[in-house]
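Thread: Newbie trying to understand structure tokens

Hi all, I'm a second-year student working on a class project, and my supervisor (Dr. K.) asked me to get a predicted structure for one chain before our next meeting. I've only ever worked with sequences, so writing a 3D structure as a token string is new to me. If someone could post the tokens and maybe explain what I'm looking at, I'd be very grateful. Here's the chain:
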Amino acid sequence: MRKSSILGTLKKAKDVEWKRHVDRNAFVKWKRGRYTIDATRATVLAFPTLIEIVAPQTAAVESMTMTAHLNKPLHGLVLKLTPQVLGYLRAVVTEQLETGGCSTITHVRTSMAIVDRVDTGVPNLFWSYGKGKYRAKHNPPEEDGGIKPRPKEFLTKCKMRAVAFIETGDRGISSDDEDSPSPDPSEAEDEDEAEDDRSTA
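---
Reply by user tm_fold:
Sure, no problem. This is what the structure looks like when written as tokens:
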């Protein structure tokens, strides 16, 4: 399913329905305060829970209507999985696999030769292929009261400084460094472990 575009297509159809409901209620550029104003929130909560979306027809699979949960675009697609819906999805995925219509986003490391990959061998130390720097992660100790501070990240070209940051949390000062208060899983996909002999330090 990850290599098929059908779920993305169905999510776009659901998002179109969400926008249509928003536009119908005249939320012009969300000037009414998004969901923070009672009137706006009440109107959004009055939206139907379930809607009908039309799955597209393909070369070998007929179009069909599906029942989906109406939610905001930043939320995922939730479908009512009937035998007919499962049969449609299976047929579309099979067709895309057979015709080469599938695509997937692969990490840059996947297309690299093993000798060109970077690997540090140090826990919490990774190599950012996009930025050409080390990405170090520091986990602060628990504070009084059992509060666990959020992890911090540090990008640098110097491996020694990255290792020191992992241990102490001290970034030091350098013009080529970047830091972040906490890791972002979506950004972490653009990075991978690094190899000592590929270091730019």
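A couple of things are worth pointing out once you decode it. Residues 6-24 form the longest helix (19 residues). The chain has two domains: 6-99, 108-198. Feel free to ask follow-ups in this thread.
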